[in-house]
Structure formats: C-alpha cells, structure tokens
Amino acid sequence: MKSYLRFLSRNKLYTAIEVVGLSVSLAFVILMSAYVIGNMSYDREIKDKDEIYLCHNIGFATSYSFLEDEFTMYPEIREFCQFGRAPIGIFVEGELTQDSNPLWVTDNFFSFLQFKLVAGDVDEVLKKDFSAVVSESFAERYFSGEHPIGRSIGFDYNGTMRSLTITGVFKDVKKSNILNCDVLVNQRLLPPIIGGGWYGCVNLVRFNGNPDRSQLAHDIYYNSKDEFFASRLVPELRFTRYDELDINIGVTDPFQNIGDLKQQKRFTSACVILLIFSLLNYIFLTLAFSRFRIKEMATRMLLGTSRPSIIRRLITESLLLTTFSFAIGALMAVALEKQVSLLLRSEIEVFSNSAEMIWGAAIIILCSVIAGSVPALNMATVKPIEVLKGESRKKDKMVLGRIFIAIQTGICILIISIASAMYLQTRKMIDEPLGYRTEGLIEVEDMYNDVDMYNIVKALPCVKRVSRYSSCPITYSHARRSLGLYGHDVMIHGYELQCDMEALSMLGIDIIEKYDNDMETYFTRSSYETIASMFESNGVEKDDMKHVYAGIVSDFRFGNAATVLDGVTCVSISEGQRIGWLLIEAEGDAVEAKKMIAKAFKEAMGDRFCSPEPVRMVREIVEESFTSEKHSCLIIGAFSLLCILLTIMALTALSGYYAHMRTQDTAVRKVFGISSGDVFWKTVWGFIAPVLIGSIAAAPLAYAYVGHWLESYPVRIGNSPAIYLAALAIVLLVTLATVTLQALRLMRTNPAEALKKE
C-alpha cells in the first residue's frame, strides 16, 4: 500500500484526473438518482398498485362524475374507492387553518388504500356523516399533543358553518399523490360537489379477474345516467393502472405530483450512460498508467509474489481510490442538493433511503472490482524478464488507449448530438406561435358565487379590460369536451375554449367567418374541414353547418407545442356567465398590476378557501408548461459538459502517457533526421484517427435515436446532419487543443538528454 501511495504522490496529474473525473461523475449520478428515486417514490405505502386502476375521463386524471351507481352495476368491478379535493375551509377554535388542504373520501378509503391509522378503527372512522380524520402533524399543530379523538373542528362550505368530530388520526405520509392533505371528511357532506365538474372525482377500482377494460369503460360511459355523461359533453372514460400514471394523463388536483415517466427514463438512461462512461474512463486510465508500475510488479513476481496476490493487491488499491472518489462525490452531491432542487423545482434528498445507500455501495464495489481486475489481469500476463529488459515498453503501441479514445469520443459525439437536438427542439417548441396573445394578460380565479370579483377587478386603475374565460388554452386538461351536432347522431371529441367576446379580442383570436348570430360555437379554421367531412359522411350538407355553428375563428393551440392532442378545436361564446377565470389586460406594468389584483383578491376573499395561486400571469402559465422539457435540456446539457470534461481529462492523461513512453523513440528518430513537424503531426494524428473512427461509428446511432425521439413531437426540428457535424467539430477542437500541448512537448525533445535516461 505504501508503494501505491508513493506512486500516487509522484503522479499528481494522474491522481487528480482519476479522482476528479470519477468524483464529479459520481456526484452527478448521485444527484440524478436521488431526483429519479424521489419522483418515483410517491405512494409507496399503497399495496398492490399494479391491481388498482384509475377510472378517468380521457385527458384528465379525474372523472367528472361520482360513479358509485355505475360501478355497482358491473360484476367485473370487485371494489372501488372515491375521493376528491374538498372546497371548504377548516377551522380550529374559530380560526381558519391555512394548510389543511382537505379531501372528501368514501367510507372505505383506508381499507381500500391501506394507509395506516395511528388512532381509530379503519372500518369505522368514516362511517358517520360528520366525521373527520386528521393527520399526525395536524393533531400536533392544533391540539398540542392532546388526544384529538372526539374533538371538534369546524368547516365552512359556501358560507355555511358546520361542525365535524375527529374520529381518527392517520400516519403522515411524506410523499403521496393522495394523502397530500391534513383533513379527510366523509363525501356525504358535500353532495353538490360530487356531481360537479370543476373539482373532479378520483375513482379507483379493483377488478375481478382480467376483464376487457376498454369495453368496460365504454359501457360505463354510454350506460351512465349521470347528466354530464348522458349529454356526452365530457370525454369518454378510460382505465389506467395506478403505477402507470403519468403527467401526460392530464394532471389535476389532487394528482399534482405525478411525474413524467419519459423524463424519468431519460434521466435514468443519462445516469447509466455516465456511470459506464466514467467507469470506462477510470478503467482505461488505470490500465494506461499501470504501465508506470510494471517494473514494480515484475520485481515483486521475481521475488516470489504470486500472480493472484498481485491481482488482489491491485483490486484493493482500486477500492481505496474508488471509495475516496465516491466520498468526495457524495460530499459534492450533498453540497449541491439545495441548488439542484431549486433548478429542478423538486425536493432532492441525497441518501434519504436505503435504496440509494445500496446503489452507492454497489457502485463502489463494481468500479473497484472491474477497474482493478482489468489492469491486474493485464499486468499479471506480462513476463517479468521482458519487463526488466525493457522489451515490454517497446511492445506498448497504446492500442488499448486508442480503443478507449474511439469509444469515449463516440459516446461523447452521441451525447452532444442528443443534447444539441434537445436544445434546438425545446427552443422550437417555445418559439412556436400558440395562436393567441400572452403578454400583458393576467388570469384570476372566479369560482365564488358570493364574491363579485369581476366588478372588483374592473374598478382597479391598473386594469384596462376584464373578460371571462375557462382558463388559458395551454392548460388543456380543463378543455376536453365531447360535442354533438344537434339533430344528428354525430359526436365530436376535442377541446373547447369558453369565453366572452372580450376575451376573444384580448387573446387576439380573430373571427374569420360568421354564419349565425344565434349560435355560440366557432371552430378553428384547421378543424373546420375535419368537421365538414365528418358531417358529410353522416348525411349532413356542408351548408347546413352555417345554421348549426356560429362560424370560424383563427387557429390556436390547446396545450403546448410538445403536446400531442387528438380531436378538433373550438370556441364557445358565453356572455355574462361565470365560467371559472377572469382574463385581465393590464394598464401599464403587468407585474405591478398582478400585485394590485392579488391584494384586492385577498381583501375580497378574506379567509375563504382558494387555490394556492388564484392570480397568475398568462405568460408565466405558458412558460411553466415547458418545465419538463427545460429540465431535460438542463440535465442533458450538464451531462454533455461533464462528458466533454471527462474526455479532456482522459486525453490529457493519455497524451501525457504517450509523450512519456515515446520520448526515447522520438529522440532516436530525431537523431536519424525526422523533423519536428513530422513529430508533431504523427502525435496529433495518433489521437485524431481514433476520434474519427469513434465519430463515424457513433453518428448513425445518434441520427437514429434523435430521429426516433423527434417523432413523438407534433412540432419538431429537422434531423439535420449539421447537428452531428457540430458535435464532431466540438470533439475535434477539444482533441486538438488537448493533444497539441503534448505534441509540442515531444517536438521540443532534446535527443542528447532523452538518450542519457535510456
């Protein structure tokens, strides 16, 4: 071990490259693993998630209806559970709680989902109408450690104050899409809300056997007696397995923490690739620099040390360096934890669970064994006599080093190409016109019948115009609708913007053609031909549409440019009706106007229940819709820079090793007349050649991957060769800049001094 430490101290550059390269890579892997594991760890307490299915409207994570009657009609459904966000305020001793975030639930909530109770009976806590179950933290906050069972809390719904009796306490769940609340109330308290569409209903079921879920969802939808479903004004139903829920399902409350499975897969792939990349870097560098110790190992073998002992020694030394690098990487990850959490807008906790600990130990063992075994086996095959005679040095043609360069640069080309394509695609989507105005507009929640927010806002000096609409079209989950042609058996699925004429003007959506003043629904220009052909195939004359729908408006987009939506797009004019949100055009500075409107909203609402952000800039809503894509670009960009850094470090080490090993050979060549220029270009070409080989091998793979990835986007960049040529140019510049320093060193070799050392 002392000899190894002396070797490390004499070769500081090699040691620094090994430790820094592996440490930085492991820090990235640790942080990304914590991010992915954290996002995939929601609702761990729920047992058998692969047996639970969510019944929801297409385009939503919830259902518009309370489907109790429908579920009981079908023997395929063994049991079901329902819940939703309760729009009520919770009071303790007359004071409104600001953080209770209550849910209404059915009686079997705890028995169905198997969440743990610390007080109360699972089967009885929600049987009574005016019962409530609170969290441990809620009980601690408001009852100061006293036993809460039997205590009363108040709730205010639509101006009516009632009392609830606490019948149970549930165990706090750190990460949950469901129990992200502090109070549960029985659903029978809120009959008007259950059937309403604004707040939604979560319907979870377990099946008997394995029924045809598509057919069952179809039957429930078309046989429903609910007024919403019977009119077919809401999208059809679908069953989705709980552990396959994804943000693209249409995230709605209470499922605000559903992750993007595609993004998690991309980040996981990045971690695996970087781990392999850094491991290869470590192995080949260790292999290259082990040649500096070959005389030491040959001497040990001549003195009686067995080859297995040599192998064990080198693996132990590798374990020491790997463990040290991992420790530094872990410290770096912990230090960057908060900063990365802010960047990704997600709470990252490094080593917060046993899974990450196991992964860490596995990485150390894997790197140590592989990185130690490869050079150990290589060194164990050499003949000590040849080493001491200097013959092994003459045989070292740096073949493995060149193979490593080809592999590393190939991976680097692949990563840079993907990162460039992702950046360009994200910019393309962000810059793609939405078809409506966003600047200077503010959105205000307006769902409270006893508060006239319209006139309150209109009276503010910072407000130029006020209108009503059903929310920004980019939040498409609110807009999914099914539309029927009156008098004809034709059903159209699509997305509907409800607004008044003022909102249409403020958004900059133009009326192109107007057919009938008595009608209220306008189709977009691109949807019109689709609709026309559908109508004609059902025996409807094209001209008859002018007596059914109001006309045509300019094209605009629901969702963002990354969203793949099926169906047509339309606008329904609703003058003077409360739709859900107010759309405001600011007079002057929109940011200052937002602050004034938010203040007025708070004064008008007082302690009433409202969403966390009732006042928002429309531009901010649009920008937030690209959060997933921006995160992917950020991570892949950092990943690319790290790969470039590792490549620079590897090239620096290998070119230095090459220069050291070729010093005497170069001196001899100079004696026989080789020019300094020839020395320079021979050295440079020795590294450029494997770079080109690696690039040629990687380019088709990068092209195929990027092409496949781009196919998932409705609006996309072209899969241009310029992307891959730019990646090649970056790698070549990095190679030239790195290798040139060592080539110049060899070029300046003094033959007399170099041959003296021989």
Keywords:
758 residues; alpha+beta; 12-stranded mixed beta sheet; 6-stranded mixed beta sheet; 25 helices; 51% helix; globular
Protein architecture, described:
The protein is an alpha+beta fold. The chain has 4 domains: 2-38 and 261-430 and 627-757, no CATH class; 43-84 and 190-257; 87-188, no CATH class; 441-624, no CATH class. It is 51% helix and 15% strand. The strands form 3 sheets. Strands 1, 2, 3, 4, 5, 6, 7, 8, 9, 10, 11 and 12 form a 12-stranded mixed sheet that branches. A hairpin with a 2-residue loop joins strand 8 (152-157) and strand 9 (160-170). The relative contact order is 0.11.
Secondary structure category: alpha+beta
Main sheet record: 12 strands, mixed
* Unreliable parts: 192-199
Alpha-carbon distance between the two ends: 28 Å
| Annotation field: number of helices | 25
Q: Quickly count the domains.
A: 4
Shape: globular
Radius of gyration: 33 Å
Overall pLDDT level: 76
How much β-strand is present in the residues?
Answer: 15-25%
Question: How many beta-strand runs?
Answer: 22
Helix content estimate: 40-55%
